[in-house]
Amino acid sequence: MRLDVVTIFPEYLEPLNVSLVGRARSRGSLDVRVHDLRDWTHDRHRTVDDTPFGGGPGMVMKPEPWGEALDEVLASGEGEPVLVVPTPSGRPFTQELAVELAGKPWLVFTPARYEGIDRRVVEEYRQRCEVHEVSIGDYVLAGGEAAVLVITEAVARLLPGVLGNAESHRDDSFAPGAMANLLEGPVYTKPPQWRGREVPEVLLSGHHGRIARWRRDEALRRTAANRPDLIGRCAPAGWDKHDRAL
Ligand code: 6GU
What exactly does this protein do (predicted)? Predict the structure, then answer.
């Protein structure tokens, strides 16, 4: 998969050299290219923003540098690019959208600063390619770069060969399947006793059916406590059959 990021803070994307995404890059599963938006300005001050028409606070990113940058980036590869525009006004980023984006060959991110990008830019590129305006949650960041890191990590770990164990996203919270819409429960490793605290006995029992049932109960408890909004989206019908199969 190819990823392009156009930003006025290229150094903000340094974490893409680290950990899972960094490894995916050095192994060749990911081709990441970070571009400085100011390379497509032509004035002495490399201006990327201006005051909003209609008045109001803050500044708006000018359309011309974005247009020149995206024209050049989109022309630099073959295949269908998908534009991902991080914005607090976008559609919520979910695991479902992560899975959808992980199936695309080429993502182009346009993280903005200030009050956002002149609206005509999204309108222009909607006519040329698939565009997703995406928000990572109900809070406001100073810019979209952190959102690009979030989305990239969620997508990269779904790519074939990027996670060590292909099974490790089967049980993810929000993954489809029997446990869909339940948060993951607690996990334990050795030693079996630590500071007087025991690992729940059922996990040492070797009884896969009982373990599956216990994990589901814990997952339900956590979901009810932390995300009561998800409980209504659970499908309990398949649960017992799922447990007995294990
Ligand atoms: Cl994608 N951008 C900004 N600036 N703030 C956000 C966001 C994105 N998602 C949630 N808040």
Answer: Specifically methylates guanosine-37 in various tRNAs.
